[in-house]
Design goal:
This protein has 271 residues and is an alpha/beta fold. It has 10 helices and 13 strands. It has helices spanning 2-24, 33-46, 63-68, 80-90, 130-142, 196-201, 206-209, 235-244, 247-256, 264-269, and strands at residues 27-31, 52-56, 74-79, 94-102, 106-108, 123-127, 147-148, 165-167, 173-177, 191-194, 212-213, 223-228, 262-263. The strands form 3 sheets. A 6-stranded mixed β-sheet has the order 2-1-3-12-4-13. A 5-stranded mixed β-sheet has the order 9-6-10-5-11. The longest helix is centred in the first third of the chain and has 23 residues, at 2-24. The radius of gyration is 22 Å and the shape is globular.
Length: 271
């Protein structure tokens, strides 16, 4: 009986030790280099008790596949509409751990300073993934370059494709390109619709350089931290979410990105 109790205590001790090791293990977070990894690096500075392993992912790597396969514990690369399309494509359900910031989508040009200078049959580079393609078409509509069919007034409710363009006064040619490659196309097209993080990586300042920029109020494309259902209650995930919602992180984003990255906390604080 004594031997059995001793064995039981030994097993419990081993399990407790394993749990403590797991609890102290760094939280592996896949992130785009700018601004996501930079924001996470700042979190690590203000909260050294939270151990993060920040994994910067190159263009073309699917951070949701990394998450599903167990290569990372969370990712910080995407907005909610993109996540929902990924869940459908991958056949999984994931969890949103935090809603952090908005990177307004912008329309840029190396050739023109205003939309009225864009010629007939001009070329427009847009992202080729479903959600950001729709987002780009709504932005073109908001700036008077095209008009979508009736009913396409809410980007959160209706995803648009080029087939949904009802009016195209300049007969613009829509070119669907991989999002990370679009900044490189600026010299070859008349207009380019570029995601905020890729614009920043290319040295553009969206708040200054964009001919047209998404509104941030009621914007459905806030960037989020995503994890698995199994890890959504992990204390490390909870602490990361708390840190990202802190006034310090909000101030860091506001001070470092010149209006090109907007902390959600700042929008929530507006009356």
């Amino acid at each position: 009986m004594i031997k059995k109790t001793g064995l039981t205590l030994a097993v419990l001790g081993a399990l407790t030790a394993a749990f403590n090791v797991q609890a102290q293990a760094p939280l592996r977070v896949a992130a785009d280099a700018v601004p996501h990894a930079q924001i996470l690096e700042y979190v690590q500075k203000i909260d050294p008790q939270l151990s993060l392993k920040i994994i910067e992912i190159p263009p073309g790597v699917n951070s949701n596949e990394l998450l599903v396969h167990g290569d990372v514990d969370a990712n910080y690369t995407q907005h909610l509409p993109y996540l929902r399309s990924q869940e459908q494509a991958l056949g999984v359900k994931l969890a949103v751990a935090a809603t952090v910031h908005i990177e307004p989508l912008g329309i840029y040009s190396h050739r023109y300073k205003a939309f009225d200078q864009v010629p007939q049959k001009g070329t427009v580079a847009v992202p080729n993934n479903v959600t950001n393609l729709s987002r780009a078409l709504y932005l073109l509509q908001d700036n008077g370059l095209i008009k979508l069919k009736d009913g396409f007034n809410d980007p959160a409710a209706n995803q648009a494709t080029p087939k949904d363009i009802a009016e195209n006064p300049k007969q613009l040619k829509i070119l669907e390109i991989e999002s990370p490659q679009i900044p490189r196309s600026l010299d070859d097209v008349d207009l380019a619709v570029i995601n905020g993080n890729y614009a920043l990586e290319a040295g553009l300042v969206p708040a200054q350089d964009a001919l047209g920029l998404e509104k941030v109020e009621h914007n459905p494309y806030a960037n989020i931290v995503v994890t698995t259902l199994k890890l959504q209650d992990d204390p490390r995930i909870k602490q990361l979410a708390k840190d990202l919602a802190s006034p310090q992180v909000s101030t860091f984003i506001t001070d470092n990105y010149a209006g090109s990255v907007i902390p959600v906390a700042a929008l929530d604080a507006k009356p």
